[in-house]
Each structure stands twice: as structure tokens, then as C-alpha cells.
Specification:
two-stranded antiparallel ribbon; Beta-lactamase; 10 helices; about 350 residues; single chain; about 15% strand
């Protein structure tokens, strides 16, 4: 197999691609960072927000890129012998109802649990986090666990409760201790306003009020939910550190994120043969190509990568791509609701800079 490396001089088309997205109005702010296990190769910010240029250190809503960060903490529990990913979650969460008796952490991490997804439908009524957790625990399943694929953010509330109860501390603190603090991801939290610093508002978010005071109240409400399936805010630099740990076999600067065997475990495709039914019943059922909290970008052949590659995108235009075989990590941050697929084209463009070592 030919060993590849990044040629920095050939990265310009990828950065131009993201710049054109901002220039065309698809997003008002974006950041692209390309890194290897040794550090950042190149990073650049695009756009102007609130009358100032966007900076590479600005914080963006990660949306569903939150999921692999939470998944890493859950798989840590398995690596430490605290849980089995194949054991029914009622072993650890006895208040789950009988109807959830077959649901495992592995099912939730692969979106095959059957738990209904309604996380965004509750914003108008301002349901508190406890109510969101209750609904994730109690609503009847859409299908028997493991029989189908159905992408679900609500189910990650169950994983948040799992972390909280096993560690004996609030979910947010568990995630901080297990992932954010060891990786020195000090700009990553569930609040746009904390830690203090510059953050990028999200354009086009449904139900966001226009009045500044009401918009601030919405941000505070989102922070109170600490959505394990999509609520983290972060920077390109923090995500690069997280990605580099995966490129280093699970550790970075002396801090262990996962043992090497569990880095392999978390990135192994799990949904082969389990299809996602077509929404309209007309298109063919889709093969989701999903691992434990990570997508497998090479499954459809639309991203030139190895079998080891993992990625996740977010509806805000974010994407985190990691390929240990080519020692490559790509971080795309953007701030426009529902532009997730444009970030994948930027990742594809980065691959044009891979050359024989």
C-alpha cells in the first residue's frame, strides 16, 4: 500500500471551495483546519459576522459532531469494564421501561435502538432537560432494536444519563472529565456564552426569535438542555486535538482517550445489512455505513479514504473527518442551518492534496 502525505501547496482548492460557500451566501462564517498527528498543517477562517472578520479561534455550534465526542466517553466506560455495549441498558438504568428491555448502548451508538427522535420538536414549548430525558426513556419504540436504522438524536439523552449515573456526577461534568479536560478542549461546552470568548451565531435556525433578548434566552435554553446528541459548541483547534488523539492510537500529549483496541472497536462499521427505510417509500432503502457514534465515509465510495476512516457531520455545516491510514484530519465549521453536505465536498477536495510520501 502506498504511503501518502499532505502536500500543503495542493490544499488551496479545498480552502477555495469553502471560501466560495461563504462568498455565495451559503454560510456567513466558516473555518477549515487540516491536520496530521503532529499538528495543524493549515487553518483559515472565512466571512464576517457582527462587523468583524471571523477568526480561527471562534466557537461554532457543532450540532451532531457532538455525537462522536459523547460516544468516545461511552466507549471509555466499556474499555474500563464499567459497562458492556451489548448488555441491555436496563442493567445500568433500571427505570427504563419493559418496552426498552432489549435496547443496548451499542444500539443507540449505531442508531438502531428504535427510540423515536423528537429533540427539535420541543423548542417552542421550552421543555426542560428532565422532561427530554423522560421522553427518551418512556416513549414507545418505533421498531425492535437492531432490526432497522433510524438516525436519532433524542436517544443520546439515554447515554448522557448512563454516564451521569455510572460516574455519579452530572452528565456535562462526566463528559468534561472523561474527554474535554484530558484533551485540553477548554473552548468546548454546551453553552455559546461560556467559556467567555467570541462565538458565531447560527443562521437559519428554526424558531429562533429575532429580538436580541429573546435570542439570548434561546441560547440559554439550549445550554440548559446539554443535548448529548447535538449541543456542543467548540473551535477548530479543540476538534483538531480530539482528532489527533485518534490519529495517535487513542492518546495525545500523555493523556489517554481510548486504548488502541477500542479505537479500532469504535470505528468498525456495525450497520452492514441493516438498512434505513426510504422516507417516501419510492427511493431504495439506504445503507447508512455507521460505526459506534461515527459514520464510515468510504462506504458509498464518495470520499476517497481508507477502511479505517471515520467522520461525522452536523446540520450546521460542521464536519470532523479522521483517517489514521493517511494520518489526516479535517475540521469544517460553518454556521448555516442545513448545509451539512457542502462540508463533505470540502473534505473530498482536501484529498487532492494527498501525494505519495
Amino acid at each position: 500500500m502506498t504511503t501518502l502525505r499532505i502536500d500543503p501547496d495542493r490544499l488551496q482548492p479545498a480552502f477555495d471551495a469553502l471560501a466560495s460557500r461563504v462568498g455565495s451566501g451559503r454560510a456567513s462564517a466558516a473555518v477549515l483546519a487540516v491536520a496530521t498527528s503532529e499538528g495543524v498543517v493549515r487553518t483559515e477562517a472565512f466571512g464576517t459576522v457582527r462587523g468583524r472578520p471571523v477568526d480561527v479561534a471562534d466557537r461554532f455550534l457543532l450540532a451532531s459532531v457532538t455525537k462522536p465526542i459523547v460516544a468516545t466517553a461511552v466507549v471509555q466506560l466499556a474499555a474500563g469494564g464499567r459497562i458492556s455495549l451489548a448488555e441491555p441498558l436496563r442493567t445500568y438504568l433500571p427505570d427504563l421501561p419493559e418496552g426498552h428491555a432489549a435496547v443496548t448502548a451499542g444500539h443507540i451508538l449505531t442508531h438502531t435502538s428504535g427510540i423515536p427522535d423528537d429533540v427539535f420538536g420541543e423548542w417552542a414549548e421550552r421543555a426542560p432537560r428532565d422532561e427530554m430525558v423522560r421522553r427518551a426513556f418512556t416513549r414507545p419504540l418505533d421498531f425492535y432494536p437492531g432490526s432497522r436504522y433510524g438516525y436519532c438524536s433524542t436517544s443520546f439523552y439515554v447515554l448522557g444519563e448512563l454516564l451521569a449515573r455510572i460516574d455519579g456526577i452530572p452528565f456535562e461534568e462526566s463528559l468534561r472529565r472523561r474527554v474535554l479536560a484530558p484533551m485540553r478542549m477548554g473552548s468546548t461546552s454546551f453553552s455559546a456564552l461560556e467559556p467567555a470568548g467570541r462565538w458565531i451565531p447560527l443562521d437559519g435556525l428554526p424558531q429562533v426569535p429575532s429580538a436580541p433578548a429573546d435570542a439570548l434566552a434561546m441560547l440559554e435554553y439550549m445550554a440548559s438542555l446539554a443535548m448529548p446528541g447535538g449541543g456542543l459548541w467548540s473551535t477548530a483547534g479543540d476538534l483538531v486535538r480530539f482528532a489527533r488523539a485518534y490519529l495517535h492510537g487513542g492518546s495525545l500529549d500523555g493523556a489517554r482517550l481510548l486504548p488502541p483496541a477500542f479505537v479500532d472497536l469504535i470505528g468498525r462499521e456495525r450497520t452492514r445489512g441493516i438498512l434505513e427505510p426510504s422516507v417516501d417509500g419510492l427511493a431504495p432503502d439506504r445503507d447508512p455505513h455507521y460505526a459506534l457514534g461515527w459514520g464510515k465515509p468510504g462506504g458509498d465510495g464518495d470520499v476517497p479514504c481508507s477502511d479505517m476512516a471515520i467522520e461525522h457531520g452536523g446540520i450546521s455545516g460542521t464536519r470532523l473527518f479522521i483517517d489514521p491510514a493517511t494520518d489526516l484530519a479535517v475540521v469544517v465549521l460553518a454556521n448555516r442551518w442545513d448545509v451539512a453536505e457542502t462540508s463533505r465536498s470540502v473534505v473530498v477536495a482536501v484529498h487532492s492534496a494527498l501525494v505519495p510520501a
